[in-house]
Amino acid sequence: MSIKKYITQIFFKNGYILEEAVNTDFINRFLKRFREHYVSLDLIRIGGERDGGYLVPDILSNVSHCFSPGVDDIADFESHLSREYGIKSFMADASVESAPLSDEDFFFIKKFLGTHNEDDFITLKSWMDSSLEGDEKDLILQMDIEGAEYDVLTIESAETLNRFSFMIIEFHSLNKMFDRYFLQMITSVFEKIYRNFSICHVHPNNCCGASSLNGVEIPRIMEVTFIRNDYLERFKRKSKLVLPHNLDRKNVEKFDDIEMPSIWWKK
């Protein structure tokens, strides 16, 4: 038995699986597509100055409802939408009993988003269909569901996602992109989104650091804002992208900030 095989078996018996890291050429292909779909837009900050605040395109006058799966102990984003724009928010999370704040524009269900409708789980499409009276397309998706975003974005169709004017999605465990199977999965997810959306902002969450291999640095958690492409003609700017944006703030004050690696956005 080779030393490599022996070490692999030892790790497996202790609950770990060793895999060869993906060739960074494949990650660079993903990053090239990411850069190609990154556009320059005027942005505003909605929510608080720390975690729970996001940079979004200034198109909120066109939006009627926000879908916000993943409920924490703050609702600064949804409160700002209600207070300043009269936007109603549908909120979902089976791990808590109610929305963190009382607001006549908040509508909460005690369910997780998932790949099927059963017990504590509901699909995004079913949630939208049961919450709205018509086939509205001026919606927001603000999703922070601790890694379950990959299940949701894999199962939902591009047509369902296309009902959102813009989407803010927090992507977790991105250090797993060095595993080729995870990279294949997340590549498929992003290619689905690219059918109808472009990226207008990315911000690394400074809670969990970054990973690097062969000069490729990947923040472990990132907030990505997507805008539907039919808005681009009206709002796209010719000016160059600059990160960090002047409205960006650290998610966690006590930790050092993470600067978004230029390979993700600089053309």
What does this structure look like?
This protein is 27% helix and 23% strand. It is α/β, with parallel strands linked by helices. It has one domain (3-264): 3-Layer(aba) Sandwich (Rossmann fold), CATH 3.40.50. Strands 5-4-3-8-9-13-10 form a seven-stranded mixed beta sheet, with helices on one face. A two-stranded antiparallel ribbon has the order 1-2. A two-stranded parallel ribbon has the order 6-7. Helix 3 links the parallel strand 3 and strand 4. Helix 2 runs parallel beside helix 7. The N and C termini lie far apart (48 Å). The model has no long low-confidence stretch (mean pLDDT 92).
Q: Could you provide a short overview of the structure?
A:
The protein has 267 residues and is an alpha/beta fold.
Layout of secondary structure:
Layout: H1 3-13, H2 24-36, E1 43-46, E2 54-57, E3 65-69, H3 76-85, E4 88-92, E5 106-109, E6 112-113, E7 121-122, H4 124-131, E8 139-143, H5 149-155, H6 158-161, E9 164-171, H7 180-194, E10 197-204, E11 210-213, E12 216-219, E13 222-228, H8 232-235
Parallel strand pairs: 3-4, 3-8, 4-5, 6-7, 8-9
Antiparallel strand pairs: 1-2, 9-13, 10-13, 11-12
Helix pairs in contact: 2-7
Which features does this protein show?
alpha/beta; Rossmann fold; about 270 residues; two-stranded antiparallel ribbon; single chain
Classification by helices and strands: alpha/beta
Fraction of residues in H or I helices: 25-40%
- Biggest sheet details: 7 strands, mixed
Task: Quote the CATH topology.
Answer: Rossmann fold
Note the total helix count.
8
Shape by Cα distribution: globular
The CA-CA distance between the termini, in Å, is 48 Å
